[in-house]
Design brief:
With about 230 residues, the chain is of the alpha/beta class. It has ten helices and six strands. The chain has a six-stranded parallel beta sheet, with helices on both faces.
Length: about 230
Amino acid sequence: MGAWTALGEELTEQVRAASTDPSAGPTGPSVATTVAAALGDDDVLVLGSSNGPRDLATGLGLLAQPGAPRVVAGRGLAGIDGTVSTAVGVGLAGGGGGRTVALLGDLTFLHDANGLLVGPDEPRPDLTVVVVNDDGGGIFSTLEYGDPARSGTAGSRAATERLFGTPHGTDLEALCAAHRVEHHRVGTTVALADLLGRPASGIRVLEVPVDRAGHRPLRDRLRPPAG
Ligand SMILES: Cc1ncc(C[n+]2csc(CCOP(=O)(O)OP(=O)(O)O)c2C)c(N)n1
Ligand SMILES: [Mg+2]
């Protein structure tokens, strides 16, 4: 148990160091850690399914501390549907009196992009949606489908990319513009922390592009040595 806790703390430190290093490109864990670190105990963090909860768990030391935000997430089937609307609802409910921030993958965001549509006479929440955009379903690259030892032929790799990677190339900035929703594309976790620290009203989307091909090697690097 002691060794387990020590490894967890070491992992949290590694992710935290990467999150505050301006020269390090953003990764799922460093984005999740940056978001959690930017929030206080009167804020609410809405978590989409897929890599977000895993990325947050990787840097969980931050959430275990006093002052951590309340986390809201769907339970059960772990659907990627309806999450933008859920975040809008949580924002409108105004839970802890602070900010509402959602952390979603790009497919989760696209699945419910219509959640950005708020009629002119309807109440509009103050909501920041952080979208980790790896142009597809990144989680699958960390599971059996993405295991190089099982990758088979070039044809089967292409089929895996098509069926599980599901790249889309959607222009999220244009999508947000269609709804007149503020959008920022953010290249570093330092810039992300800066934006999260600025007061915002209405809905805004902070898109963080991340290389999907980097998920599995990163996970392998962060995993403790066997034994
Ligand atoms: C409604 C629904 N359809 C399909 C799935 C299967 N599924 C689980 S994770 C995932 C990919 C999600 O991609 P994204 O939101 O971009 O997150 P990432 O894996 O890249 O972190 C899919 C399609 C699901 N959970 N729910
Ligand atoms: Mg994705």
